[in-house]
Amino acid sequence: MGRLRDDEIAMMKRTNPPIDSEIAWKQVAARDGSARFFYGVTTTGVFCRPSCASRRPLRANVRFFATVDEAKAAGFRPCLRCRPIASSSPLKLVREHIERNYERAIPLAELGRIAGLSPFTVQRLFKQTMGASPLEYQRSLRAGALRASLKRKVSVTDAFYEAGFGSSSRGYDGAALGMTPARFAQGGKGERIFFWAAASPFGWVIVGATERGLCWLALGGTKAEAEASLREEFPAAELKRDPGLAGWIEAAVEAVQKGTSHNQDQDGTKFLDLRGTVFQLRVWQALRQIPRGETRTYSELAREMGEPKATRAVARACAMNRVSVLVPCHRVVGKDGSLTGYRWGVERKRRLLEAEKAASSY
User: Fold this and answer.
1) Where a domain ends, among 159, 185, 211?
2) Which end of the chain is less crowded, N or C, counting CB atoms within 10 A of the terminal residue's CB?
């Protein structure tokens, strides 16, 4: 990573409050592993975590930093013993902190202190890894809590506050559920979904979309079978044909056959209206990060998500995927490489993988 620009350094100073040097020194002396800052030693030019087991420096030679980027900007290099810039742990700390505190506002500066990174770096790396910004991830957690409350038949108003929404109007924000809480509690009654079906080399393809984006992409042997799948998935919704959605079908087929990427807008997320638990959303995002032409086992996908013990949960989330092809659950195979069960047929899974492999070889 290069040196930070002057404006970035100035912003970090504004977003990260000053460190109490006396308290910080006591934490360094005690090798406090819970301390969320870094210290640099001027005589060696190295910066460390407070818990570092290296020889304790003289107090006069120590400087304190809120983030890794601040330490680097001051000219210090990371310690090879305590490895203050370990690649995987900072984002895990951030994710776990958001999950513990999703009910309240969490400033980026706070997440920066947790990770030992600048707010800018946390925002960028979190979105690259999770497919959502820290704020979007927090909102998805609140939405999940709201769904859970509504399913327990808690009153809508009480459900808002249980989920951490500051007011009832925030709970009605379309970004939370994709429909109003009342509609969700009634199984989607009153929701309007536009759809269209067309033949493709992989069978009949049907797409369904709400005002927020694509919520259904399924494969069937016949047009009637494809349309029936939509009605079974959304039995309480109002369904309307829309030929204008044919472009989505063409784009999905082209993405498989030619390796194109017509399935994303600028941030790669807003075109989809995916509804699920926070864990399911994470799995679906991880599926989209599998390179075209490659496959993963369920256990490999779980490890890549940082959840090595969640193989079965990953498999269940893949089975619940409502947007085939664009959320490519077909890229997940059995432990021995076999094509395990696929919601839209193992033979279609085989054809999709073969087409993607051929496209990626060009």
Assistant:
1) 185
2) C
Ordered DSSP codes for 312-355: HHHHHHHHT-SBTTTS-GGGEE-TTS-----TT-HHHHHHHHHH
DSSP reduced 3-state for 136: helix
pTM: 0.52
Q: Tell me the residue range of the domain where 15 lies.
A: 6-78
Q: In angstroms, rounded to a whole number, what is the distance separating the alpha carbons of residues 218 and 315? A: 18
State the DSSP string of 276-311.
S-HHHHHHHHHHHTSPTT--EEHHHHHHHTT-TT-H
> Do 158 and 206 sit in the same domain of this protein?
no
Kindly state whether residues 142 and 285 are assigned to the same domain: no
Tally of domains in the chain: 3
Note the pLDDT tens digit of each residue in 211-235: 878 889 999 999 999 999 998 888 8
- Among candidates 26, 104, 11, 105, which has minimal Cα distance to 66? 11
Specify the DSSP element, H or E, that contains 83.
none
| 70: nearest Cα among 84, 90, 56 | 84
Question: What is the Cα–Cα distance from 161 to 150, expressed in whole angstroms?
Answer: 12
- Tell me what the mean pLDDT of segment 327-352 comes to: 87
CATH number at residue 239: 1.10.10.10
Contact by Cβ (8 Å): 176, 146: yes
- Positive or negative: CA dihedral 2, 90, 112, 72: negative
Q: Is 52 tagged catalytic?
A: no
**Catalytic residue flag (residue 79):** no
Give a yes or no: residue 88 inside a domain.
no
Candidate list 52, 79, 318, 329, residue with the active-site label: 329
Q: What is the b/e burial string over 22-40, where b = at least 16 CB atoms within 10 angstroms of the residue's CB?
A: eebbebbeeeeeebbbbbb
Active-site option among 48, 52, 82, 215:
48
Question: What single DSSP character describes residue 261?
Answer: -
Q: Residue 81 above 80 pLDDT?
A: yes
Tell which wins on pLDDT, 254 or 16. 254
Q: Which of 78, 101, 116 corresponds to the end of one domain?
A: 78
User: Model confidence at 189, in pLDDT bands (50, 70, 90)?
Assistant: low
Q: Which residue has the tokens 């090879």?
A: 80
